[in-house]
Design a protein that fits this description.
The chain is of the alpha+beta class and 340 residues long. The protein folds into 2 domains: 154 residues, D-Amino Acid Oxidase, subunit A, domain 2 (D-Amino Acid Oxidase, Chain A, domain 2), CATH 3.30.9.10; 167 residues, FAD/NAD(P)-binding domain (3-Layer(bba) Sandwich), CATH 3.50.50.60. The chain is 20% helix and 29% strand. Strand 15 and strand 16 form a beta hairpin.
Length: 340
């Protein structure tokens, strides 16, 4: 990990308590004058308070981390199968007398999830197989961690298509986000923090050659105006939504020049924008782990450990994640993330 201190800004006193942490995080709170003294190359006229991390913060290569996990898992006996999920199969429970006279949508209560249907492409290091018919993989436990496509996979299992509990969908959808790399010869260097502006714009230094990477976490209204059907980059979005904010906060960024950009998907939970972690209320052998809205690399490791504790110990040991269970949607309860 490359050390890089974070700074989150607030222009409302009501947001001040969001920076406070009782979990041991080394965070300093700076008022307007202290921020200006610490970062003279920025403007803080509209800012009331800012946080500044002093320890254990930085950036890392997500792909290298995932590759390391994969290689370690293989040494522990995990088998990876590259495949496309096309559906789920259910088997009847022992009591079929009443179930078979019900409508197909109402039969869910008398069925158990047993098989996953996939189009097999290749397994581990075997040569790629083409034109392969779908085949069933038997399992007693299914964990849906398909990221931005986990909502589609859940629908293949019938969630949101049946009656009663099965009528409740898992509302995780793919949402497009942008990342832009720009060069600014007069921009700040090592004293540039990983900046989180109250508008949702974020920016950090990329290396030592006056390169920076930036993007934006859009509001719900703004997110609904983005075309999420493709990964085309909208440069007007940068010109109208990101650049003006950057230039107002760091005046030297008025001379920036975009060098590279890309679009990517995050998995957003449309219900309350918080993760869904845990078993389905009825089909207890189906677990969901998603809806992290772009924070999967940070939160996914802890979520995976919590699920393993559920499987091996029968309860959460390290972190209690019951508030994130899917059952909260049936109760009309929300988990609101305390961030912009």
């Amino acid at each position: 990990m490359h050390p890089h201190f974070y700074s989150a800004l607030s222009f409302k006193w009501s947001q001040v308590d969001l920076f406070l942490s009782d979990l041991g995080a080394k965070v300093k709170l700076l008022n307007n004058d202290e921020l200006q003294l610490m970062f003279p190359f920025m403007r803080f006229g509209d800012i009331v308070l800012g946080s500044l991390g002093s320890e254990n913060e930085g950036v890392f290569d997500g792909w290298q981390l995932l590759s390391a996990f994969r290689e370690k898992n293989i040494t522990l006996g995990v088998q990876y199968i590259k495949a496309k999920v096309t559906g789920f199969l259910y088997e009847w429970n022992n009591d079929q007398s009443r179930a078979k006279v019900l409508s197909e949508r109402g039969q869910w209560r008398h069925k158990s999830l047993r098989r996953l249907v996939v189009d097999l492409i290749f397994i581990l290091m075997e040569p790629q197989v083409t034109d392969c018919a779908p085949r069933a993989l038997y399992s007693y436990l299914f964990i849906n961690c398909a990221g931005a496509w986990s909502g589609e996979v859940a629908e293949m299992a019938g969630f949101g298509l049946g009656e009663e509990i099965m009528s409740v969908p898992i509302p995780v959808v793919a949402r497009k986000r942008y990342a832009f790399i720009f060069h600014c010869p007069d921009g700040p260097s090592l004293d540039m923090p990983y900046l989180f502006d109250p508008s949702g714009v974020w920016c950090r230094r990329e290396g030592l050659g006056h390169l920076y990477i930036c993007g934006k976490n859009p509001s719900w209204e703004e997110d609904n105006q983005i075309d999420h059907s493709n990964l085309d980059v909208d440069y007007d979005y940068f010109d109208t939504k990101i650049w003006p904010v950057l230039a107002a906060r760091v005046p030297s960024f008025e001379k920036l020049k975009v060098k590279n950009s890309w679009a990517y998907y995050v998995d957003r939970n449309l219900y309350d924008n918080s993760a869904i972690i845990g078993p389905h209320p009825f089909h207890s052998n189906y677990y969901h782990c998603g809806g992290f809205d772009g924070m999967a690399l940070q939160h996914g490791i802890s979520a995976a450990r919590a699920l393993m504790e559920q499987f091996l110990e029968g309860a959460y040991v390290s972190i209690d994640l019951r508030d994130f269970h899917l059952s909260r949607m049936l109760r009309g309860r929300t988990v609101k993330p305390e961030c912009f």
